[in-house]
Specification:
The protein is mostly helical. It has helices spanning 10-40, 44-97.
Length: 102
């Protein structure tokens, strides 16, 4: 009779039972690990939500950068106008202090 054709002994069954217990324990551990990974893993929706937020912040930054450039030009225009105004006032004041000659 071949060894594989022989009936299992109590020792064989005990050994098989222990192996099944070890496999079952590993399955439980693997399931717990998988559950933990699922809980902490980013989903595609999470990544898309983060990317939309980043895009929104980038758009705001571009808007504020353009607004600052526009304000900067307005300030330069005002400074030029003030300098020109100062020049005209100085010219008017100096013409008033000179006697009129006719």
């Amino acid at each position: 009779m071949k060894p594989e054709d022989q009936a299992a002994t109590k020792g064989d069954l005990s050994e098989l039972d222990a192996k099944i217990d070890r496999v079952a324990l590993e399955v439980v551990r693997t399931q717990a690990d998988l559950h933990e990974i699922k809980g902490s893993m980013s989903t595609k929706d999470d990544v898309e939500r983060i990317m939309r937020a980043i895009d929104g912040f980038a758009a705001q930054a571009i808007h504020y950068q353009r607004a600052d450039a526009t304000r900067g030009k307005a300030i330069i225009d005002i400074e030029v106008g003030i300098a020109d105004h100062e020049r005209r006032i100085t010219g008017l004041e100096s013409s008033q202090t000179r006697p009129h000659t006719r």
